[in-house]
Predict the 3D structure of the following.
Amino acid sequence: MSTPHLLLGLLAGGSRHGYELKRAHDERLPQARPLAFGQVYATLGRLQRDGLVAAAGQGRSAGPDRTAFALTGEGRAALDQWLSTVEPPMPYVASTLFTKVVVALLVADVDRARSYLIAQRAAHTTRLRELTTVKADPVATLSDVVAADFAIVHLDADLRWLHATLDRVADWHREVHP
C-alpha cells in the first residue's frame, strides 16, 4: 500500500486532520492492515515538506490543536500521475508462505514441509470462512464486501498453490536433496 498516495486521495475531497484521515482509511479499507496515527502524521509531514499538502488551518475539538491539511496543486498532479500509472504484475515470487516452504525443504524433512503446508492450508481455510461471513453480514458496507472479495480471491489462489504443492512436496524434496 502506498500510504502517501492514499492520504493524497483522501485529501482530494477536502481538507482533513490526521484523526479524520485515519478514520477515513479504516472506513474505506476495512480489511487492510491498520494505519497507525504516528504513520499518518509522519507521512503528512513528508507530504508537506515535499509541497504535496499544505496546512489548511487549526482547530480544537475537546483536545489538542489539530492541524487540517489540504491537497496542493502539486499534490493533485502527483495523485493523478499515480492513478494513471498501471501497476506491473509482480516480477518476483516474494511471499513468506513460499519462502517458508522452500526453507522447510532445505533444512527439514519432507514430513515437516508437508505438515507446514497442511497447517497453512487450515489457516487459509479458516480465514476464507471468516471473510465469507463478512460478505454475508447484512450490515456489511460495499467497502467491506469489495475488500472481502479481494482477499478471498487471493486466499483462493494461495489454497490452490498449497494443494498443488502438497501433491509435489515429496518430489520437490528429492530434487533439493538428491
